[in-house]
């Protein structure tokens, strides 16, 4: 559990200390893809390499992935959990009108948003 907290602290430190985006150079918009009933856009920790993915899934499935990563003892997987949780928290402020960088993904409400050129 101690390693998990260290990974979480590191991830939040990088998230909080990252400079804000200067603004999109070209006009962009969020392309919204709704999730199926009973699911919502959630960030998931990857199992086999560093990083996260966004997917339409249930909170129960996401919680199971987080628990499996935590129980694995793998520092990389625990860091992935911390990053996924930070991304989910950051996405709470996203709206369809939010500025974005082409190619970025985010949870907009319960749907998946992909930033595209306007």
Fold topology:
Blueprint: H1 2-17, E1 28-33, E2 40-45, E3 52-57, H2 59-72, H3 75-91, E4 105-108, E5 111-117
Descriptive labels:
3-stranded antiparallel sheet; 118 residues; globular; two-stranded antiparallel ribbon
Could you describe the 3D structure shown?
The chain has about 120 residues and is α+β, with helices and mostly antiparallel strands. The protein has 3 helices and 5 strands; from the N terminus they run αβββααββ. The chain has helices spanning about 1-15, 60-70, 75-90, and strands at about 30-35, 40-45, 50-55, 105-110, 110-115. The strands form 2 sheets. A 3-stranded antiparallel beta sheet has the order 1-5-4. A hairpin with a 2-residue loop joins β4 (about 105-110) and β5. The protein is globular.
Task: Give a concise summary.
By secondary structure, the chain is α+β, with helices and mostly antiparallel strands. The chain is built from three helices and five strands.
Radius of gyration, rounded? 15 Å
Strand content: 15-25%
Number of helix segments?
3
Q: Going across the major beta sheet, what is the strand order?
A: 1-5-4
Order of helices and strands: HEEEHHEE
Distance between the termini: 45 Å
> pLDDT average, as an integer?
87
How many strands appear in the DSSP assignment?
A: 5
Tell me the structural class: alpha+beta
Rough shape? globular
């Amino acid at each position: 559990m101690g390693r998990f907290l260290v990974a979480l602290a590191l991830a939040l430190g990088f998230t909080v200390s990252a400079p804000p985006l200067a603004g999109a150079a070209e006009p962009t918009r969020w392309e919204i893809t709704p999730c199926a009933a009973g699911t919502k856009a959630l960030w998931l920790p990857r199992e086999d390499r560093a990083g996260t993915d966004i997917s339409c899934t249930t909170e129960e499935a996401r919680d199971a992935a987080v628990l499996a990563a935590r129980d694995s003892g793998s520092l990389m997987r625990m860091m992935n959990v911390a990053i996924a949780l930070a991304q989910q928290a950051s996405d709470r402020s996203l709206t369809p009108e939010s500025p974005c960088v082409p190619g970025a993904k985010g949870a907009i409400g319960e749907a998946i948003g992909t930033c595209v050129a306007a």
